[in-house]
Amino acid sequence: MTFSHPTSDQATATTAALTQVLFGERLEQHHEPWRKLLGTEPFRFREGLSSEERSALSYERLGLVNAALDSPVDFAGDVQRLTALHEWVGPVDPGLGTVASIHYNLFLGSFVDHSSGRPDRDLQDFAELRRTGTFLCTEAGHGNSASQLETTATYDHAAGEFVLHTPHADARKFMPNTSSAGGAKSAVVAARLIVEGRDQGVFLFLTPLSDGDGLALPGVKIQRLPQTASAPVDHCITSFDQVRLPREALLESEYGRLTPEGTFVSSIGSPRRRFLKSIGRVTVGKLCMSGYSLGVTRHAVAVAVRHAFNRRTSGVTTGASVPLFAHRSHHTPLLESVATTYAATLLHRVAVRRWTEATGQEQEDSERFTAIAKGWITWQARRVMTECRERCGAQGLFLANGIAGQLAANEGTITAEGDNLVIWAKAAGEMLLGHFTPTQPSSLDPAARDLADPAFLQDLLGDIERIWHQRARRRLRGGPSGDPLNRWNNTVNSALKLVEAHAVSQAGQALLCASADALDSDARQQLILLYRLFALRQVAAHSGDLLADGHLTSTQVRELQDASESVVADLVPHAETLVAAFAVIEDVLLDHPIARPEGFDEKPLPSWDDAGLALQGR
């Protein structure tokens, strides 16, 4: 048995239908251009490069990405196109994913979001990459407490300028890519706007950092940070010493601008809300980080499944050999990974759609949903890629095989654009304070329901949500009065379980809806099988609570393992089709040594045999 794309007409149609489910109607428009570009020679993996060389290569490749865009500024404003890029760039160059995300989303995207304040701003240098953009928000002393950051931009009325200043070491901007790598750079810098001695809150300021030779400009101090274990990027710590900026450096909008007389006006009274509006691009960044994680996860699953079909091992009879995939112990975790990856991809589609369509109050709900999805997707990416790395054995450790480096780089997505635990804790608090209503329990008798029924399984996922919502609410009410921190500490762990249960329920719902919408009957059936495997795994993890609250019977609890085993067996014949639907870049897959029998047949190192032959020839 060897891995290949399905060849029968029906299998090909099913693969196409599944790909359509995963990528939607805009596959050709949004995804296909990146699949084609990133599969070309300039993006092939290069062995033996140092971290600095990989970082420099990422900037070179950023130029190729930029050249493929008709309008980089318009691209930055199109969330669907932007997230699509992130889904394909990770398998070929994690560092490119980072610098592209910063330049297009955080930097250019911030100007798009503030375009009403200065619609005539000239962004040509950045659109043509004569200057690379970066984003400076986090400070050495303020990470997830960024609303309390201390860099200041004081308005000098007499000169009509801002004075950007770092007051002490803890206020230095931490980890932005501000080194000379990639040439001249400018940043949008988050700083406290001080007007007539009054702190008006945090806003963004366009700040040139270096000249054409990459040298820091006067008043700008840039120091390289130690190498990280994640994507090879030129992380630095950056500070400012009384750097003067022109008045137009302020990114203005209705929630913060200066009148011609130099008076600050805003449609928002709260400085914290002004700050959140200023860095609103971070929410799109969460969608980008989720997209990046999905891309590397789908690729890792494809590598591991291909290897499992190609690699042979001992069977159960003497002298016989079978593919690794033939063993239940090997294919069960891989099929579970496939199911999780489908669910995560479809949850991301829902998150992007909700964000792009949200208006008014819906925007706040969409931001929360995006944060929850980002946390779950990037954490699941870590779990799935770790499984895939292990299933590939020692070969999974080689960077050239497309899993180990991407797994390490994915750690950055867990922290970037809001640390997962922190944004989940914020979402948890909001859900307990009226921004979440659990589904009503089913009126049907659980004993009369079947574990093979997707509707029953989805009801059980809703029951898990309700269980943790009730527990968290009870602990919140029973916490110590007059001590907000301890009251929250009494609640938070149950509240985080609620967030996780909500993410799982929403992911399951997205997969279940996709199965109903699939036009191909075989695709529909395979999606239902994936849903059942995904849901059964979640239900089994909470079976004690579900049994205790009467949502499962004792007989059903005992049947959970058999139900899962049955679904796994039904999915085995479809594994290749399901993974082929990921449409991973074939040229990238074939470039991995693990995918080729001759993959490690490089030129051998010099040996004594070579030396002897050389002597004989003299």
Notes on the protein architecture:
- Helix 5 packs antiparallel against helix 6, helix 13 packs across helix 16 (492-517) and helix 16 (492-517) runs antiparallel to helix 17 (521-541).
- The strands form four sheets. Strands 1, 2, 3, 5, 6 and 9 form a six-stranded mixed beta sheet that branches.
- 53% of the residues lie in helices and 10% in strands.
- The longest helix is centred in the middle third of the chain and has 30 residues, at 281-310.
- The chain has helices at 9-23, 27-38, 51-67, 72-76, 79-89, 94-113, 124-127, 271-278, 281-310, 328-357, 362-391, 404-415, 420-432, 454-477, 484-489, 492-517, 521-541, 543-548, 554-571, 575-580, 586-591, 608-616, and strands spanning 132-136, 152-156, 161-165, 173-174, 185-195, 198-208, 220-224, 236-240, 243-246, 257-258, 264-265, 312-314, 321-323.
- With 618 residues, it is an alpha+beta fold.
- The protein starts with 8 loop residues before the first helix and ends with a helix.
